[in-house]
Amino acid sequence: MDQKLLLLAALLGAASLSFAQTDSVRLSDVVVTGTRYQSDIRHLPLDVSIISRSRLTAAYQPSVLPTLSQQVPGLFITTRGILGYGLSTGAAGTIKMRGIGGSADLLVLIDGLPQYAGLYGHPLADTYQTMLADRVEVVSGPASAIYGSNAMGGVVNIVTRQMRENGVRTNVNLQGGSYGTFIGTATNRMRQGRFSSIAAVNYERTDGQRPNAAFSQTSGFVKLGYDLSRYWQLDGNVNIAYQESSNPGPVSAPLIDNDMDITRGMAALSLTNDYGRVSGAVRAFYNWGHHHINDGHTASSSPQTAFYMHNDRMGGVSAYESFAPFSTTRLTLGFDYQRFGGHAWQKAMADGSRTDIADRNVNEVAGYADIRQELLSWLTADVALRYDHHSVSGSEWIPQGGLTARLPHNMELKAIVGKGFRNPTLRELYMFRPANADLAPERLWNYEFSLRQRLLDGRLGYGLNVFYLNADNLITLNVNTGSTENSGFELLGFYAPVSRLRLDANYSFLHTSRTLTAAPKHKLYIGADWQPGRFILHSGLQWIDGLHTAENNAATENFWLWDLTATLRVSRQLKVFVHGENLLAQRYEVNAGFPMPRATVMAGVNVDL
């Protein structure tokens, strides 16, 4: 056996762990991702991780993504600096699950609604902020039967915050530290009778660890809700972010004036109903973006003569209704419609004249059905089928089926087989050479088995996922020629030996049939939370091995990252904290040519009113 695998087994055994899902996961945890309606996680054949708000805020991160990368085995997210993922050339924020993802193969949702760029189809990493998240639910493996295109590799669903009790709650968090970094967040939550509101604003900026690596972002989130009755609720939200960033380029060829001004926005309106055995929702959404980019130049080349600019948009309607005609049966019927596209052009710096690149829109419409049937008191079957039609790429059938067995001693066994797919983006179809309007969808089949068990009244849990996936028709240089076979396993666990100490760990092993970037062969995380008296200590140690940072590059990265957060509760309202990252001062890269900062430190205050 590989010595590294023996070492990992020893580490996990020494920690007495093999299942790290989040906080102590109760047996009756309810999730919405994977079904769209509220469902007991024990009845789902899908592997769903629940990252609670307490876990998301433990290290005072402004983005949910660093926490997800630690807490979810098999999930990896690229980074390039102390703050900010950026867009366009040299951007980080690539999200991959089990080696699948990248430009558009993993779907990020906010309250079940898609969040990606209308022209390019990629996630918008800098807008996925902790201030708006109540929890994050992550589906490992394809969920296209329910969510359609882009959910080929998996789904990350950010469930926004709520205010359930009457009153007013306000939180202010201020912190600053290495490389001129500052983060400030203020959140107000209110509920009075049937009306509730949440308003949050965040500002973050850094000089960056390299010249020409500055980043700043200002964002705001507002959510209003009204209970029309005991069974019906109406709510709407708006999220807007404006960022200015500079890309320093790879160290081998630094860039000058590669500057970006980006505005992103999203709005949604939802009408939901819940009668217990009947529940559903109708949601309308609209996302938009304005990008103003100078692609920059090297010291040996001439400055750009034109800005790249685009306005992209995506809007649609998502509706479903779920019925339980019998206590052992649940049927869900759903409908999705999306229209996305935009206008891209070059704007001459000298006279402002325009040269169009693309001005296109496409439509996608789909219907799906999901039926869950209890075959026995301990055995549940789930079958889903989706029909999806894209106005350019045509139609696609997407099936999924699974079994869940709930066994004695709080043990669960799950098996699932499902198809994932992704329609080509407008960038691939029409924008840059070699644009190809004849592209077909990417496709994937996934086979997975998982085991879960919780012991000691829920204080100890462990689990195992084993998977095999075969993807073909992958779009490479705008041609359907790519393929990959990925297989592997994931261990995850938690243990709370005493009330004020919690340990968690996860490990994933990935084998791929070809070289894939942002898909480490080994990924290990061991974490601890300890609360001695007024102190709260949160520590995490992560090991990454076999990470390819560039296509066609046989060299790999291997590094350990140690983070530590120490918080002192001065009073019920006031906390002061210090947070350190990469405290082992490792030299490493995640994006080729972009060395990450060595040890960094942030300090701040957190006030609850």
Topology of helices and strands:
Elements: H1 3-14, E1 30-31, E2 39-40, E3 47-52, H2 53-56, H3 65-71, E4 75-77, E5 95-97, E6 100-102, E7 107-110, E8 113-114, E9 133-140, H4 144-147, E10 154-160, E11 167-177, E12 181-192, E13 195-206, E14 215-227, E15 232-246, E16 259-274, E17 278-293, E18 306-326, E19 329-348, E20 354-376, E21 379-390, E22 394-407, E23 411-422, H5 426-431, E24 442-455, E25 460-476, E26 479-498, E27 501-512, E28 522-530, E29 535-547, E30 557-569, E31 574-581, E32 600-608
Parallel strand pairs: 7-10
Antiparallel strand pairs: 1-2, 3-9, 4-5, 5-6, 7-8, 9-10, 11-12, 11-32, 12-13, 13-14, 14-15, 15-16, 16-17, 17-18, 18-19, 19-20, 20-21, 21-22, 22-23, 23-24, 24-25, 25-26, 26-27, 27-28, 28-29, 29-30, 30-31, 31-32
Helical fraction: under 10%
Oligomer: single chain
Instruction: Name the beta content range.
Output: over 45%
Query: Can you count the beta strands?
Result: 32
Q: Please state the average pLDDT score.
A: 92
The shape, in one word, is: globular
Count of alpha/pi helices: 5
Task: Describe what this molecule looks like in 3D.
The structure is a single chain. The chain has 609 residues and is mainly β. 5% of the residues lie in helices and 58% in strands. The chain has five helices and 32 strands. The protein has helices at 3-14, 53-56, 65-71, 144-147, 426-431, and strands at residues 30-31, 39-40, 47-52, 75-77, 95-97, 100-102, 107-110, 113-114, 133-140, 154-160, 167-177, 181-192, 195-206, 215-227, 232-246, 259-274, 278-293, 306-326, 329-348, 354-376, 379-390, 394-407, 411-422, 442-455, 460-476, 479-498, 501-512, 522-530, 535-547, 557-569, 574-581, 600-608. Strand 16 and strand 17 (278-293) form a beta hairpin. The protein starts with a helix and ends with a strand.
